[in-house]
Amino acid sequence: MRFHLITLFQEACDAYLSASIIGRARKEKKIVVKYQNPRDFVDLPAQAGNKWAYRKVDERPYGGGPGMVMTAMPIVKAVSKALHVGRRTSNMQKPLIMWLSPNGKQFTNKDADAIAKYQDVILICGRYEGIDERAKKILKTLATVKEFAVGEAVYTGGEIPALAIVDAVTRRLPGVLGKDASVEERRTASSAVYTRPETILYKAKRYKIPSVLKTGHHEKINAWRKKK
Question: What is this structure's pTM?
Fold first, then answer.
């Protein structure tokens, strides 16, 4: 499975996606992560003649107001490049484009299960006040576009929601967690968990694990977990 992140901040994303379980999944080729930076698709004036010239991807919003808006065409061109890479390497299967926005549908485990069936997923990480809406309209003519939000908070960019989605989808792929039973939402799991030692002594007070967890009675343990 390939994730294509459209982002101005590859280094911020890659730090997380190279660590722990996700990093191991990448090393074992269970997933591939690719990046496209919108700045790489900005057309510089001919007279600039300098590949190191600043590549501007934002402009003031029409209608006034604070902040800046990401321009449409660098996003469209970055996604088009990702679409080409995805189709070239996956027998022309249609990739999925994920537009990340606080106004989108709340991302759920059910969505993660559905997305895990794709071979190529493109996640667009906006910044500033957002992305020129015309980019979304253009992209809808190229592939399926689904708009998602991760949580009800507003972030400074789409990178955090994108990382959450990559994490949630990757852990569902066969072999990533070792056993399918390790995916908590596919079994009876509790938000309250315990491990060794059985008793913790802190400031003269003892903290013990619930006695039911020592019984070995799976039905009773599952009933306790459901209650929790």
Answer: 0.85
